[in-house]
Amino acid sequence: MSILAVGSFALDSVVTPFGKADRVLGGSAVFFSAAASILTEVNVVGVVGDDFPLENLSFLKDRGVNLTGIETEEGESFSWSASYHSDMNTRDTIETKLGVFEGFDPKIPEQFRQSDYVFLGNIDPVLQHKVLDQVTAPSLVACDTMNHWIESEREELIRLLNRVDLLLVNDEEARQLSGETGLVDASRWIQKRGPRMVVIKKGEHGAVLFSDDSIFSVPAFPLPCAFDPTGAGDAFAGGLLGHISEQGFASVADLRRAMAFGSVLGSFAVQEFSIEGLRTLSKSEILERVRALKVMTTFDMNEEG
Amino acid sequence: MSILAVGSFALDSVVTPFGKADRVLGGSAVFFSAAASILTEVNVVGVVGDDFPLENLSFLKDRGVNLTGIETEEGESFSWSASYHSDMNTRDTIETKLGVFEGFDPKIPEQFRQSDYVFLGNIDPVLQHKVLDQVTAPSLVACDTMNHWIESEREELIRLLNRVDLLLVNDEEARQLSGETGLVDASRWIQKRGPRMVVIKKGEHGAVLFSDDSIFSVPAFPLPCAFDPTGAGDAFAGGLLGHISEQGFASVADLRRAMAFGSVLGSFAVQEFSIEGLRTLSKSEILERVRALKVMTTFDMNEEG
User: Fold this and answer.
1) The pLDDT of residue B305
2) CB distance B299–A224 less than 8 Å?
3) C-alpha span between A135 and A114 (Å, rounded)
4) Is residue B209's pLDDT more than 50?
5) Do B222 and A215 touch (CB under 8 A)?
6) CA distance A26 to A9
7) Segments in chain A below pLDDT 50
């Protein structure tokens, strides 16, 4: 099976308490692909400026990612710089330069239109609609968004929800979108507007899946140190959809296991700057950590006791 | 088996986004006992003023809690008032009046001195030492503390750690006590100073157990609405130790299951003001929710797939 991933390609400059990185690979499509491609076939669509070091994406090509959907436009690539606070949970955005991303108008190559799964990275909901207009009956459409679109494109976003099977948002976004304080109510609100499944990402506190009437909770994989949180959510989405694309999606049990893959890919992403934690990662290292996560969350009922 | 619980008896005045409660039952010993007594025998020690409505604790007596260790002193009971912010994760303390609690000098009745388990509620570490000086070889000593003691009685607290098997703290307290940012490092720091086991409580994000080299993570039971977070941590400790006292503590598997009981008792505590969520709670309701928590955290590896 294969995934069509549409999102941003960025040059990130990041300062964390552990160091800094300057104009390194970033963006939702990059983090997503770097994670998902270890597990499954990925077709990626996006735009870069003529300053983008496409050669640094060759490791994705080596993994079989189809990069022919990346358009190069004259001008500067999307760039973003931010500084994380000492608790790593909050950050200040220093500068966002849209560059060629401003005129992004996703064109899905003919050969990608029948991808089994679609990941709509965090871009303008108007563009997310355009992507869906071009694809043919995917098994599952997953979508990410952010506070900016919830504020500025609320109507388009809510109309989009009706075309989405799985919405991935963080806890703040879920609250902002729904107007509900509790995550249970927030998810119900979202589910009523389309997505059968809602994944609420909580950073170092893990993630929760609401599907139909069932709830599944997975912790973040505990790390001695989260080096750079940038891209963790996209790597999570990549692990989740990557596993589903690899193994199929027959029941909610597959989705729960996929949540564990999401958590694990997120954990590898934050261990290094940029996509470095994903660049040489192997499937066996992922499986090892998924198994450890299972041990870490299992308890016996001892009903006889 | 039985637990000796030493802590505060308070009259709490609380404002939350959902309403307010005035001079209602509170305090670490009260929340702990209200939770643990559904599962096991509890002997409680503390001090109240002559204004304390002891008759409101009769439900504990009905459950077999031994209340003879509660001393009544002339004067006002410990009282505390606070207002929770809309996210319920933060609160402003409006007033703390120590009253008779200021002169608290715990005297452990002869009949309590051989209790199997000891819970040192959040009081001055100097007093926590005094409690341990009076007990005879308990199987397990569990201890709670708070930022106030970490700042003002650091030396006594660190000396106390060496006498404690299980430390329960929240994430902020773990960071403050250890000076470490990451919870893995913070727990290692604490474990080096005595406690074999460290439970880090994260409120709505659940709790993590560090024991020897193993980590176990349990989510908070998802509720549509957390009505009043006061006492959740003490109810968590009551559920955890209550289960251990009821079932025994043979291996880390028992402790993991006990963490689930802790999470569940915490969830019942926050569903109503004061101890109302625990007052008429039955063991079968607890078990039902523990089983639901197990379903909510279980995923299959599908290694064949």
Assistant:
1) 43
2) no
3) 6
4) yes
5) yes
6) 6
7) 305
3-state class (DSSP) for residue B278: helix
- Using a CB-CB cut-off of 8 Å, the residues of chain B touching A253 are 299-300, 302
B171 and chain A: CB distance < 8 Å anywhere? no
Q: What's the gap in Å between the CA of A181 and the closest CA on chain B? A: 7
C-beta separation of A254 from A180 below 8 A: no
Cβ neighbour number for residue B64 with a 10 Å cutoff: 11
Average pLDDT, chain B: 95
To which H or E segment does residue B95 belong? strand B91-97
pLDDT for res A227: 87
Residue in B closest to A213 by C-alpha: B296
* Predicted local confidence at residue A181, as pLDDT: 86
Instruction: Give the position of tokens 């607890």.
Output: B286
What beta strand segments (E) does A179-233 contain? 197-201, 207-211, 214-218
Q: Which residues contact B160 (CB under 8 A, 6 or more apart)?
A: B125, B128, B129, B132, B143
Cβ contact B301–A257 (<8 Å): yes
State ipTM. Answer: 0.91
Residue type, A41: E
HSE-up of B188 (CA within 13 Å, CB side)?
11
Do residues A269 and A275 touch, judged by C-beta distance below 8 A? yes
Q: Fill in the amino acid letter for A31.
A: F
The answer to whether residues B138 and B4 touch, using CB atoms and an 8 Å cutoff, is: yes
In this structure, what DSSP letter does residue A52 have? S
- Per DSSP, the three-state class of A136 is coil
Q: Looking at chain B, which residue has its C-alpha nearest residue A294? A: B299
Kindly report the CA angle at A25 between A24 and A27, in degrees rounded to 5?
125
Instruction: Please give the torsion angle defined by the CA atoms of residues A269, A270, A275 and A279, in that order, rounded to the nearest 10 degrees.
Output: -50
pLDDT on residue B225? 81
Tokens standing for residue B225: 């609405």
Contact between A17 and A228 under an 8 Å Cβ cutoff? The reply is: no
For A268-298, how does the pLDDT look when each residue is reduced to its tens digit (9 = 90+)?
999 999 999 999 999 999 999 999 999 999 9
- Among B184, B263, B297, the residue to mutate for chain A (most A Cβ within 10 A): B297
Three-state secondary-structure class, residue B18: coil
CB B10 within 8 A of CB B215: no
A69-92: burial string, b at 16+ Cβ within 10 Å, e else: bbeebebbbbbbbbebeeebeeee
Q: Could you report the per-residue pLDDT of B108-135, keeping only the tens digit for each?
A: 999 999 999 999 999 999 999 999 999 9
Contact B8, B101 (CB under 8 A): yes
Contact in structure between B240 and B193 (CB atoms under 8 Å): no
Map out the domains of chain B with their CATH numbers: 2-297 (3.40.1190.20)
> Could you give phi then psi for residue B204, rounded to 5 degrees?
-65, -10
Chain A residues whose CB is inside 8 A of the B219 CB are 206, 208, 217, 219
pLDDT of residue A305: 43
Residue in B185, B202, B223 nearest the CB of A224: B185
Q: What is the rounded distance in angstroms from the CA atom of residue B26 to the CA atom of residue B302?
A: 47
Per-residue pLDDT band for B18 (boundaries 50, 70, 90) equals confident
Least CB–CB distance from A222: residue in B184, B219, B298: B184
